[in-house]
Amino acid sequence: MKRLFTVLLSLILVSFFPSVSHAKGKAPIRVACIGNCITYGYLLKDRERVAYPAVLQTLLGTKYEVANFGKSGATLLFRGHRPYIQQEEYRQALAYKADIAVIHLGVNDTDPRNWPNYRDEFIPNYRQLIDSLRLTNPRMRIFIARTTPIGVEHPRFESGTRDWQRQIQRAIDCVARGAGVQLIDLHAPLYPYPHYLPDAVHPTAEGAKILAEVVYSAITGDYGGLRLPSVYSSGMVLQRGAPLQLSGTANAGERVKVTLQGQKVNPKRGLTFLTTAKDDGSWGLSIPSPEAGGPYTLTFQAKSRTIQLDSVYIGEVWLCSGQSNMAMQLRETKDQDLAQQANDPELRIYDMKPAHVTDAIAWPVSFLDSLNRLDYYLPAQWQAATPHSVASTSAIAYHFAKELRDSLKVPVGIIINAVGGAPTEAWIDRETLERNLPAILRHWRTNDYIMPWVRERATQNLKLQDTPLARHPYAPTYLFDTGIRPLAHYGLRGVLWYQGESNAHNVEAHEQLFPLLTSSWKNYFGSNLSFYYVQLSSINRPTWPHFRDSQRRMQQPKNGVEMVVSSDLGHPNDVHPKNKKPIGHRLALLALHNDYGFDTLTARSPSLSWVGRVKTDEGEVLSLSFKDVRTLTTSDHQPIRGFELVDADGLIHSVTAEAFGDVVRIPIPKSIRSQRLTIRYGWKPFTDANLVGDTGLPVSTFMTREDELL
After folding, report:
1. Boundaries of each Sialate O-acetylesterase domain copy (predicted)?
2. DSSP per-residue codes, 584-632
3. What tens digit of pLDDT does each residue of 395-448 get?
């Protein structure tokens, strides 16, 4: 069949499309943009000017001639519902005899009339299309593109489109390898901008501009020269104990030389490493990690430019994230005076401050435009711990980092990107949500998955330019795209997370979201990432006992996901309790024990391990055994407060409790006849429960049935 196709094609070309000749060296380079409605510019009001081929022409200039051969609704599949090879635009593209062809087909192949029936023909059909173009000009440069995104609002997204598009992307990758053509990714650059796909398929003019810029760079190899991720700057701390993973962009084929200098390598010549930028402009290097300490100098050299980073340190790096209780600055806490003592060049801070905090105001239109461009954080630079820098730094992050510095005697770097009021879903990458909870992405400001306060605050901020697709930091995936992706897979030891206030309305939804968050970040930064989070404190909000218990139950110590307790440090009416130093200390204890081998420390709060019922002469007694503790006591040396029993009829009974070593005993009142009791501890929004271990770490509030731990 392939041979017959080639013969027929040759006859068609000779019979109907005479060759076009140009004087050598004078004719512009002809670029044929072949594709479907996205190439054509469907739904664009001024497509002749703003469709991606038109913008590409402007970018390439007069040395190139760009022709648009897009056909709306076209499929790559020859037996699809509208095969491109049967369209007039295809015949015109062949006659054009381009020097360069850019093919973007496959979006319409996700139609259930197409992919389920003919998927096995996709790769052979694509190869035949490429062969037909090469027959018109054997020297033609051919680029094929991964397809642009299809959003969750598409009516067939979950019934097949989501999964079929992923299969098509893999098939396109296979075609590029087999046919020896260059692959262009039109999916990834547009993926963080769902507002540029208002109908979930067709890009706006802004989206078309992004596509044109990607194609321009692929054709010319111009990616703006040598560039580094924004998190790379003088004064940065790189994670010790593993090869340093350095990356960036440069012009395609550009050689990049990286030199590491410092007293512990070779102060005169240093160590030099070489690599070459790929066709897509990306480059990466893995170099042996030098000894902890510094300062070192990293120099990045390419033909386009040289970048030198001074005062680089090798040590321990932690990301500190979440919402306002993590963002709360040291100068806002009861330990604000400690800032004046800060003077440590090896405790370094990369503080990503939002350009606008999410107060209850209408943001200016100019800022709303920048939100749509994903410009939310102010530019940041690594800086040393000084009284000035520390005062405006996350109090929890600083207390944690200082304790690590004192214990480890190596440089410590903290990256802070917490945002007041931010919900969990804003921090999860889009692909993870599309695969596991796509409903939360749809119409998020009228979506019951999302806390009403979060939606209302966003609407207040967006008041001056409010559209259904307007972006906001609280929108699902937004903070991942603006606060995590720019970190460019930066090497981390772990994460400190303090968040939940903006998801506390729906425990069940958060129980889906939180594991997605941890898996999302482990996929991005590395599976060995430690993830330590702070349980919500005490406050008079009715859903918080259930939420705190849910947080307790979602720990996964074997996977490096653990919690520290803060219910003893709350305030009945203030969601921002000001005593943050104990939180930083508890997080540091956990890290020092788990990540740095300080085995002598009692790092964890006592936690319930076993419940049993014992008969005595006085009656029946519940015996509760706790782990991670030698002796239980109370924080105020008063009798134990906070225990109660719930019988099978749902009636609540206050009870007394007494500690004996690592066991708490609760006499069961004779009025309770139930043989299946629920035990609750500290089960109030704001609790004065006082059970602690001998190191002072508090027992978490909890609820458990009598038979759950047996």
Report:
1. 491-588
2. HHHHHHHHHHHTT--TTS--S--EEEEEEEEEETTEEEEEEEEES-S-E
3. 999 999 999 999 999 999 999 999 999 999 999 999 999 999 999 999 999 999
Residue with tokens 């009403």: 452
**Termini Cα distance of the chain:** 68
From the list 475, 424, 416, the residue with the least C-alpha distance to 446 is 475
Which residue is it, tokens 């013969």?
7
Assigned CATH for 29-220? 3.40.50.1110
Tell me the sheet residues that pair with 285. 246
Query: Whole-angstrom Cα distance, residue 645 to residue 668?
Result: 8
- C-beta of residue 136 within 8 angstroms of C-beta of residue 94: yes
Task: State the span(s) of the chain assigned CATH 3.40.50.1110.
Answer: 29-220
Give the DSSP letter string of 3-72.
HHHHHHHHHHHHHH-------TTTSPEEEEEEESHHHHTTT-TTHHHHSHHHHHHHHH-TTEEEEEEE-T
Sorting pLDDT into bands at 50, 70 and 90, what band is 673? confident
75, 108 Cβ separation under 8 angstroms: yes
Structure confidence by residue, pLDDT tens digits, 626-661:
999 999 999 999 999 999 999 999 999 999 999 999
In 3D space, the residue among 511, 517, 532 whose CA is nearest the CA of residue 476 turns out to be 517
Answer left, alpha or beta for residue 624, where phi above 0 means left and psi between -120 and 50 means alpha. beta
CATH number of 607-708: 2.60.40
Which residues are bridge partners to 681 per DSSP? 643, 702
The pair of three-digit structure tokens given for residue 542, joined into one six-digit string: 């009715």
174 phi-psi bin (left φ>0, alpha ψ -120 to 50, beta other): alpha
Task: Tell me if residue 668 falls in helix, strand or coil.
Answer: coil
Distance CA 613, CA 320 (A): 43
Which residue bears the tokens 């190596």? 410
